[in-house]
Amino acid sequence: MAQTGIRAARDLDPVWQRIRAEAERAVEGEPLLGGVVHAHVLHHDTLERALAYRFAEHLATPDLSAQILREVADAAYAEDPALGIAARADLVAIEDRDAACHRLIEPLLYFKGFQALQAHRVGHWLWRQGRRDFAFLVQSRMSELFGIDIHPAARIGRGIMIDHAHSIVIGETSVVGDNVSMLHSVTLGGTGKEDGDRHPKIGDGVLIGAGAKVLGNITVGHCSRIAAGSVVLSDVPPKKTVAGVPARIVGEAGCAQPARSMDQILRGEF
Question: What's any one GO cellular component for it (predicted)?
Answer without folding.
Answer: cytoplasm
